Amino acid sequence: MFRAIAFLLAWLASSVAASASPSIDWRVQHPFRFFTDTTDFDMQREALADVLAAHGGTAPATVVSDLERVLNDPRWLREWYKTDAALYSNPRASGRPERGWAHHINRRKAFCWNANSQWHSSCTVDRFGEGLRTDYVMPQGHTVEVKLIEPPTGQCIWKADRAAFIQRGALNAVRTADCTAEITARIPFEPTRPDAEQGVSVSVTLPDGTELPAQRIAVKDRLIVGIGDSFSSGEGNPDSPVEIDRQSQRANLNKAFVYDEDVQKIRYKKSHSLPVRSQNGPANWMDRKCHRSAYSYHLRTALQIALADPKHSAVTFLGYACSGAEVAEGLLLPYKGAEGIDPGQLTGDGPRRRDMSEIDRLTIELCRDPITRAAPQALRLDQPISQNGRTYNSVPLLRCPQGRFLRPIDLLLVSIGGNDVGFTPMIVDVLTRQRPPLADLPTQFNVVGQSMLTRIARVVKAHDVAEAERKLRELPARFAALRKALAPLPIRTSAGKPNVIMTAFPKIELNENGRVCGEQDPRERMEGFNVGGMLFLDVPTLRLVSDFANKKLYPALKSAAAAGNWHFVDSHRDAFAKHGVCAQNRSTLPVSAIENMMLPYVDRVNQQFRWFDFEPFSAYRDLDYRAVRDTRPYAPRQRWVRNINDICLFVQYRASGTPPPTSQWGVLDLVEACLGGPFHPTAEGHAHIADAAYAEAKQILGLPAPDIASLRDE
Questions:
Q1: Which of 100, 337, 487, 677 could cross-link 236 (Cys pair, CB 3.0–4.6 Å)?
Q2: In this structure, are residues 192 and 184 in contact, taking their beta carbons and an 8 Å threshold?
Q3: Residue span of the signal peptide, if any (predicted)?
């Protein structure tokens, strides 16, 4: 009986195989053109397939944040790195997965952004032969792999209606090859032609003489552009975090500050040293000047668009977001950026582009004509705007002649407005209003600490909410100027609206219960801010900032988006409501290093160095990545917002003046180095913002749902 059933099943299978007719299948070789190595996109593709598999084959609403968790699971990354030992080479043989998925891409400089020449257009991707390449912003074509599903045995003759098959560095209209082989073809990208005429028509003649119906192959290439500030650049999330000196022997940093639960105060403790980065181990960014990284929600949104249809479409991404940018100084006017760069490292026209506004940078790269050295033209403003004490009735911008743009923008992502009202100065005002409650602190240090607070507030130009409200009154005029500056750009429209997505700023000031930090638990005023023993969340001031952000700035930005008929995305604000800067998962005690927000310190015990309360690099040598010792910069946490201690451990840079070598750092040097990026989303936070932005982009662009078969080319 069983033998008969087995025979019947085998006969049915052979009958199906015999009746299955061959068909043409194809996939684009480079779906996300911003990554120069296709293997880096394949990593994203495989991780997303795992996410879909975990959700029954469908993409959840949290698809980007779920993907982020998989990508930054060191166990998953370690297995992926084994697939290409040359690309992910490392002396430890594990690829350093604890440093995050973007680490190796940055190490290889495998982004289509050249920080030395300060633009994307010099990127040489999609090379398909000796000396043959395509431009980045406007590709002449895309390389695709064509094959037969259910191929027969023998030789097949491939034909195209124009030369497309790549063979020995040349393009041919006919190619004979084994029917099981994948054929590499070059498909022209001609977006100005009618849809029915785009691409290449391909047919196949089988060994028995049968000719398969011709199939038209055309790659849909979408241009995604991002402009904005630190909330879209990825501030606080470098591609390669700093390397903490394991000994951290700094004679001037021998003062640790620990939280005393019993008295709810900060205690001074003489120690060997606080954590300091190695002299040769700074954080590395895609763009150091702007603190732009691969973890930014702009890039993650563009990447997810590419993952929606990785077989038949491609994404060209242009990212310009810059930490510290305002509508005026940043988007419209020249801006030096968050961190100084050595002019000697700039090449070509890099020195000219170094401080250019984001709008000018975008215009240069989209224009057919070389306008980098052209004289800017005055854009008359309907209402004056002010910047650094100067009033502007017009702004100088580069112009591309009418009809000379290379291609239209399929989607523009915008995040701006926080710096225009003084986001960072307000936060510093919250942190420096008063000294934290201190126990047994030497009188001398009390005096020094107060002077340090004054200096920090002066350097950052701290101001209160009243000053922010004054600046808010100019915001409509600034956005009117931005809309006028964007008007000449070729931005597509859908359903009567320009394809522009503006995102609201997330709620960053709340704990795990949705309360303003410090209102419910006194330790929230100090945890995460104990570097130098001088910073402290002043709850009444933070409450004023919270009210301003949610009741005044948020509605103002929503109105600004409505005035431009832009898409306004704000669903992520509710997602952040229990994941602010002081949120912790306290379900287990003691709190793990993942959630611990106090800065560790190193001391000498029995003639040996030992770290308290945790080792900031323990996961580097713990192959099992046990959660209790997990201090990875991109480990999932309850909080999706960077605190000051995070910046101390993962970023550590000084923007003001010429910093001394880390071996000479004192407490103030470390405090200043830890102020560059707190109160910004973590990589996990950026992924949640990207969830919201992608959901809107999916509707605007009419994207298909990603599926496992397409991701794995099954």
A1: 677
A2: no
A3: 1-20
Residue-wise pLDDT tens digits, 621-640: 555 555 555 788 998 999 99
Q: What are the residue ranges spanned by the domains of the chain?
A: 20-35+111-218, 37-109, 224-697
pLDDT tens track for 230-285: 999 999 999 999 888 877 667 677 777 777 777 777 777 777 778 888 777 789 99
Q: Taking a C-beta distance cutoff of 8 angstroms, is the pair 415, 502 a contact?
A: yes
Name the one residue in this structure whose structure tokens are 């000031």.
Answer: 509
**Residue 240 near residue 226, CB atoms below 8 Å:** no
CATH number for the region 20-35+111-218 comes to: 2.60.40
Side chain identity, residue 8: L
The structure tokens 């029995």 sit at: 606
Amino acid at 137: V
pTM: 0.93
Sign of the four-CA dihedral 49, 53, 57, 61? negative
The residue type of 9 is L
> Which CATH number does 224-697 carry?
3.40.50.1110
Tell me the C-alpha to C-alpha distance, in Å, between residue 513 and each of 219, 430, 585, 681: 47, 21, 10, 18
Alpha helices for 254-379 (secondary structure H): 297-308, 350-353, 358-366
Q: Which residue numbers in the chain have pLDDT < 70? A: 1-20, 89-95, 126-134, 248-249, 251, 437-460, 588-594, 618-629, 654-660, 662
